[in-house]
Amino acid sequence: MLSERRLQVLRAIVQDYVGTEEPVGSKALTERHNLGVSPATVRNDMAALEEEGYIAQPHTSAGRIPTDKGYRLFVDKLAEIKPMSAPERRAIQNFLDGAVDLDDVVARTVRLLAQLTRQVAVVQYPSLTRSTVRHVELLSLAPARLMLVLITDTGRVEQRVIDCPAPFGETSLADLRARLNSRIAGRRFRDVPQLVEDLPESFEVDDRGTVSTVLSTLMETLVEENEERLVIGGTANLTRFAHDFPLTIRPVLEALEEQVVLLRLLGETKSTDMTVSIGHENAHEGLNSTSIVSVGYGSGGEAVAKLGVVGPTRMDYPGTMGAVRAVARYVGQILAES
Amino acid sequence: MLSERRLQVLRAIVQDYVGTEEPVGSKALTERHNLGVSPATVRNDMAALEEEGYIAQPHTSAGRIPTDKGYRLFVDKLAEIKPMSAPERRAIQNFLDGAVDLDDVVARTVRLLAQLTRQVAVVQYPSLTRSTVRHVELLSLAPARLMLVLITDTGRVEQRVIDCPAPFGETSLADLRARLNSRIAGRRFRDVPQLVEDLPESFEVDDRGTVSTVLSTLMETLVEENEERLVIGGTANLTRFAHDFPLTIRPVLEALEEQVVLLRLLGETKSTDMTVSIGHENAHEGLNSTSIVSVGYGSGGEAVAKLGVVGPTRMDYPGTMGAVRAVARYVGQILAES
DNA sequence: GCTTGGCACTCGACGCGTAAGAGTGCCAGC
DNA sequence: GCTGGCACTCTTACGCGTCGAGTGCCAAGC
Q1: A290 close to A270: Cβ distance less than 8 angstroms
Q2: How many CA atoms lie within 13 A of A165 on its CB side?
Q3: Hey, of B139, B227, B261, B334, which one would you mutate to test binding to chain A, going by the most A CBs within 10 A of its CB?
């Protein structure tokens, strides 16, 4: 177990390193934080911290920098989430209140997060499986061609064109539309399959093929994978810390374009808790020198999707966590209102 | 006027510089291209080309590199668009054929363009004003709350929630829906305003307020500005040429996130012609060392939106132009089919 | 008059050795 | 257990000489 002072030394190292982006030495530490001890003592503590793997030196005679393990301890035990100031909160609310539709909410959120944290922001569209159906609309495009439109409680709209196995009359169409809505409107997506299971049977034999096709298209639309779109912003912020990582920026950009990778990272926990994933804790190799701060957000108490930021492991964790939490809360409010 | 050989020298300089990314000297030129003259002669030609502003040297005693003016001449007079090979064309078609909806088409297009050109790809969503209405749907969410869904011939769907000034009955709703569709289905967006101008008058006094609100929301939805969304991909390719421009990558990323800027750049010409904008020809300062190759695409003969790539001025123009043109053609086909 | 070979010159890239400086580890004393 | 002192290590910066690519110019040749 580390003594209280050694933890303070670790905290000071993290804070200074995040601020200066340079390895921090014992002398500088005692000057900038009044630890009440001399540099020599701090050196002893540093040696112990290094022994335990919390800090490391880039080369023999340089200052120390925190390791992933060091950041982990800092985040878990030493840091407190920094709340947003009142003006900041007002700015967030004002900015998000101007949104006109879901796309706009997401677009604004991503901009906001990127600006507040000065890092790369990632926002996942509200997931369908945890949402409810507001309405299903069926339109006839041609005798054997339909369009299915699905509207969710979060304001999202999905549409699919369906080629029917046989022509489908207007009366049958109206019938199907009405029955479908009466069964699933207001219900959760995940409950839909069993609610419509027996629907084809109640139609004329000629129409059953089309009804089945419509239903299976509907199911496909519900499948999470297709729906978990992401929006990314603030990639220009990557260049802020690229001067010592001119080579690191590429894998990060590549990873950011691999939506699958990001989704897995965001989706690891399904709760609303804030998650911080540091350096090598990220499964994806390209993100080994970045940290991801993410949190669930949603219109009720329940999370429907995640948002977060991707930045260097050397980031301002308290500030970033505060910004991410605040944005998630306000987005949740906006979604609940609309 | 420049002699034929001098133009050949310029062409050779552009080709070599694009290939090697290094200033090209007179000796190397005569070795790699059989110009039939000695290095000394080439030097004279180079001096003339430099005098005219087509090439420049980074410092005394280095090879020459093309200037923006040099690239301009190359693109206008010396280069021929390089057609895609048959296997490449097949690959493009296969890749795009797998798309399930408009979002998917756009997403795939952007990936494809980025891969083919190894540069940053930009694809604009089909613009509404040049599209036609396939269907308008009105749904009742609550007694005084409607949802308007607009479906375009390119498969795009837009929705808006409308708060009505007064409750609106189901019969009135069905009436409005039917009349609206009979008037504007199949018509161009730009013609819609005058087609529905007198619609409120034909409704009961109590309902007119709501009808007007619905119509004005519909108009808003048609306004181009809201609709010109862009999708960007392949930003990781920026790092390929960042080694000598570690400082240039940031303004480019910033410009790419400023959709307004990009839209203006793409939108300068409204035709289907291929446009190449080189270096300082770009109004936006951050893009002064990049070139933009763009072209209109659309489901018939008419362009409904643009797509293109952003890369260093030192790019393979013939190849890039070939890829952009080919992709635009195939996307147009896909849109026409669906 | 255009082309060519020769030649002196310029200037960045590279390698190397030195000096400076920051920071450490260890030890003896309090 | 803390502190000051000291020798040691290693990186970084700087200066300097060399090397080589490439140029511009000039006089000679076709």
Answers
A1: no
A2: 10
A3: B139
Residues of A in contact with B136 (CB under 8 A): none
CA distance B243 to chain A (A): 8
Bridge partners of residue B56, in order along the sequence: B65
SS3 call for A162: strand
Structure tokens at A320: 């970033």
Of all nucleotides, the one whose C1′ comes closest to residue B63's CA is: D22
Q: In whole angstroms, what is the distance from residue B181 CA to residue B172 CA?
A: 14
Largest CA distance in chain A: 89
pLDDT in tens, A89-144: 999 999 999 887 788 889 999 999 999 999 999 999 887 666 788 888 888 877 88
If chain B, 338 residues long, is cut into consecutive pieces of 10 residues, what is the mean pLDDT of each piece? Answer: 85 93 90 87 93 91 92 94 95 90 88 96 81 82 83 76 86 88 84 87 89 89 66 89 66 87 77 89 90 87 84 95 95 82
Q: For B257, which of A135, A236, A249 is closest by C-beta distance?
A: A236
> For residue A41, how many other CB atoms are within 10 A of its CB?
15
If you ran DSSP here, which 8-state letter would residue A132 be given? B
Place of tokens 């605040």: A326
Q: How far apart are CA A273 and CA A250, in angstroms?
A: 30
Burial class of A1 by CB neighbour count within 10 A (0 to 12, 13 to 18, 19+) = exposed
Q: What is the dihedral of CA A239, A241, A243, A249, to 10 degrees?
A: -60
Sequence-distant (≥ 6) Cβ neighbours of residue A48 within 8 angstroms:
A2, A6
Can you tell me which residue has the tokens 């804030």?
A274
Give the residue among A6, A11, A18, A8 at the shortest CA–CA distance from A319: A18
Structure tokens at B32: 């790699």
Residue A175 token pair: 């019938």
The pTM of the full predicted model, rounded to 2 decimals, is 0.80
In this complex, the residue with its CA at the shortest distance from the C1' of nucleotide D12 is A62
Residue of B nearest to A338 (CA): B161
Chain A contacts of B238, Cβ < 8 Å?
Answer: 253
How does pLDDT run across B35-80, given as a tens digit for each residue?
888 889 999 999 999 999 999 998 888 889 999 999 999 999 999 9
Which residue bears the tokens 């030097």? B43
Q: What is the CA radius of gyration of chain A?
A: 26
Alpha-carbon gap: B11 to the closest alpha carbon of chain A (Å): 32
Which chain D positions have some atom within 7 A of a protein CB?
2-5, 8-11, 20-26
